[in-house]
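Re: your question about MFS transporter

S., sorry for the slow reply, the queue was backed up all week. Below is exactly what I fed in.
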Amino acid sequence: MPRPLTAALDPYRRLFAVPGARAFTAGNLVARLPMGMFSVSAVIMIAERYGSYALAGAVPAAGLAATAVVGPLTARLVDRRGQARIAVPAAAIAALGSLTLALCVHVRAPAWTLFTAYVLTATTPNTGGMSRARWAYAFRGPGADNAAALHTANSFEQAADELCFMTGPVLAALLCTGAFPEAGTVTGAVLLTGGILLFAAQRATEPPPRPPAPGERTRSPLRHRGFPSLLAAFCCAGAVFGSMEVVTIAYADRLGRPGAAGGILALLAAGSCLAGLAYGTRRPADAAGPGEPGEPGEPGEPAGPGETREPAETAQAARFLRCVAAMAALMLLPLLAAATGRLTLLAPALLLAGMATAPTMITGMSLVQAHTPAGRLNEGMTLAVTALLAGIAAGSATGGWTAENWTANTPATAYTVPLAAAAAAALAATAQRRAA
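Result:
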């Protein structure tokens, strides 16, 4: 193996030298794969059975909106009572919701039953957040080495997210079109349950629960300056992903190539995955570890009014803005490619557009950790993921409505939705940079 490549892989070797890291990562990847399957599976099977992209976009949107409410509550329980104790029953309820949805779609039940079933999936545990919390526990403590290792871990986790969103849609599309429309949802429910059981069994790497001590009061991450605008940026980024998914499925269908949608969307995730892995080999001087409770101004406890912000956090906010701006600029490519009416041009455009996604999410998650005390780390990361999911819900609904109502003669018009969402994310990142 060439020495430059060997050196680039060294940070990742350190990660998996941690005892138990490979086992919990394997379980987490299995549990996380359905996250890239559920939405695409729902869109395909509902559109197939009911003949409406508006309904197909609205049902996942309702479930993701419910997750915006239930997700942070589940994460708080995870922080206080432990990952294994909470994640297993939460995943079981979510799997039951997915199976109920598949059954309702199969028998063509009234539309309201689809919304009711999908809402049950709101209890799906934040597997990525729990995995990041395990890395934060493994590399806890001050020091540049731990901070650099945590940056690599965050990069790996983002690449894992993208890997799941790269393979998940392809697997979902193959199952739904090659077997039967509900096959993707049923398979996803089985993988989620099995993966969570495997992940939860790895108790040695699980962070200890942090129940609040009598009289202890920890500020909610939402009360930290800059955190609301950071969540707004995550929400807008989610709208990019949600709308891009539905718009691309509808666009391929309009061109008579519905089966190609999963593969094309996989290229978007592939670009992000490659960029994330490359980004993880860097060692930013301002890499920050997870928050620790302490006085304002210490790492992880953002400064209050009139107090001095950590230079590392300010640098992270500036880097986050640059990443979001790059993502917004690259979202022009799918719109221009779609205007040609050729999937062969849209595919590489999505690959390139995805390359700003992982660095944006990695830097954003680093900011979330800097804003969040250690005792509420999973809650803080889940709030970010919840904002992302809320954005995906809004983007999915908006993209579905636009694809059905505005694109009869010009299918490419729907690609203005992810472009507008990316521009809004850049505005929110600007506000966050000023708050930092």
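The chain has one domain: 21-206+219-435. The first helix runs from residue 3 to 16.

Happy to talk it through on Thursday.
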